[in-house]
Design goal:
The strands form two sheets. The protein has a four-stranded mixed sheet. Strands 5-8-7-6 form a four-stranded mixed sheet, covered by helices on one side. Helices cover about 20% and strands about 30% of the residues. It folds into two domains: about 60 residues, 2,3-Dihydroxybiphenyl 1,2-Dioxygenase, domain 1, CATH 3.10.180.10; about 70 residues, 2,3-Dihydroxybiphenyl 1,2-Dioxygenase, domain 1 (Roll). With about 150 residues, the protein is an alpha/beta fold. The chain has four helices and eight strands, in the order H-E-H-E-H-E-E-E-H-E-E-E.
């Protein structure tokens, strides 16, 4: 076995993967999802020259929307108009992913809860307090669970 073949049979070394580049979610109602992630959660939607060239046509057709978090993670929404409801009971998980969590400064956590309530976002549970911090779990328009969490106040 050559050195090259031996390297290929081993796993990647720690540090090869730098960060999560993007997460892609299928959405049934693009308008509702864009409002949810852009207006309610306050993520920046990529427009114009910010849109990757490989997605410009899909964005122009309304089939994809791209958002970016302050730390650079891209959230891609792919319009799937025939997406079946996950389950009549929103608490029934429907994917291998459990939830998407956003970190917020602890002094803004209560405001975030107020915003979710004011927009009548369906809350799964919380706010909860744990040794690791506080969190609230809620659903996006397609029933995918999202969390807003903060570190504990010292």
């Amino acid at each position: 076995m050559t050195v090259q073949e031996n390297k290929a049979t081993q796993g990647l070394t720690i540090g090869c993967l730098k960060r999560v580049h993007h997460i892609a979610l299928n959405v049934k109602n693009m308008k509702a999802s864009r409002y949810f992630y852009g207006e309610i959660l306050g993520l920046h939607e990529l427009t114009g020259d910010e849109v990757p060239s490989t997605l410009k046509d899909l964005v122009a057709q309304g089939k994809v929307a791209n958002f970016v978090t302050p730390d650079g993670l891209i959230l891609d929404l792919f319009w799937e108009p025939d997406l079946l409801p996950p389950h009549a009971d929103p608490k029934q998980q429907f994917t291998r992913a459990n939830h998407l969590a956003f970190h917020i400064d602890s002094n803004l956590f209560d405001h975030a809860v107020e915003v979710l309530n004011n927009h009548q976002v369906l809350i799964d549970h919380g706010p909860v307090s744990r040794p690791t911090g506080r969190g609230i779990y809620f659903y996006d328009p397609d029933g995918f669970m999202v969390e807003i969490r903060c570190d504990p106040v010292n």
